[in-house]
User: Fold Cytochrome oxidase biogenesis protein (Oxa1 mitochondrial) from Anopheles darlingi.
Amino acid sequence: MLSRVCRLAPKHALSGRVLCGQQQDPNFRNRSRDYHASTTRHTGVRVLKPCLLTNTNLSATLQPLTAAVLVRNLGTGVDDKAALLQTIPEPPTIPLQNAPEVADLVAGAEPTFASLGLGGWTPVGIVQNCMEFLHIGLDLPWWGCIAIGTVVVRTLLFPLVIASQKNAAKMNNHMPQMQVLQVKMTEARQAGNAIDAARYGQELMLFMKEKKLNPLKNMLVPLAQAPIFISFFMGLREMANTPVDSMREGGLFWFTDLTVCDQFYALPIITSMTLFLTIELGTDSARMSAAGMQTAKYILRALPIFIFPFTINFPGAILCYWACSNFFSLLQVGFLRIPKVRDFFKIDRIVTHRPETLPMKKKGFTEGVKESWTNMKISRELEERARIDEIRFQKAGRGPLVKTYKHDPTASRATATTPGTTVNAKKR
Assistant:
């Protein structure tokens, strides 16, 4: 128990001076326990230290303490508790000048996608959940979320691109042998010789099996990218139409609002141009050339021009994803054209064939369209002829005999005789 004298020490008495008091403890045989309260002028730290003081009477000059620290830590007797509690000052108020209010925190928080009706376990919902994780979990802007999501998905599809490139290179290197069989098969089909056409078709299949060629491998990348592109397209469109309020300021450069279309038409132009370069320089163009599908190649070249009127009305989020995907495709094409990279992934070097040495001559767009239309007409006529022959064959086997002569040789014929004469048949 500390001395009451120390409890009654005034605040001004602690400024650079030492005050002492003494208390007699009957349990320790009149052993004095002395304390003094001291302060430092420079630091202002108050310390209680034991000391010895005799014959000191400070009761006339001491006043109650105003320091809350000493009042809380110094002990008192039972009689003075009520008086001591009356001198306890109010606790100091903590200034909260920079602390945000709870209402401000709630107002600045973004609603979850589940509360907006977005997300789920469908392919579209999974895309939206991934976008929300990148935006909330990693604190990324929306354009960064779209770009990172595109790069991650296209990187996961990279093994399919390698397999497609290997197959396309092999088909290009064996194109002369394949074109010889294709020309013979086409001529036999146009002549109506189904047996020779089937024989050449079988030889072509055996040749492709021997060289481990498969035209379906060229379609791995488009078939894998189609559902992913549709999921991203529908997911970002729902997010822009809901709308997600933070997407209004989640863009970049001139397209800050990703929920509306680009008013400068810059994103649609960039998307169309990058798509054209991807088709012209990318794996799709090489595949079409290797397979001899020149007409499809021309159609793909016209695709960017055809889709441009529709892309000008798309939200900025969709065009941002589409442009990022096209840029990644261009970087991928340039990366796979490096000879050391092709050797590392064991992709055959592409052999350049001279057009005059190939059995199938390269034709222009108009000639190619005319030839395709002619082949379609011939194929249709042959199919119609085969169908008619099949119907006639069935009728000949089931129906009555068709009369193809003037007189029926199986019917009895009457013998012409003159009147009055009798003809006797010779009996055998």
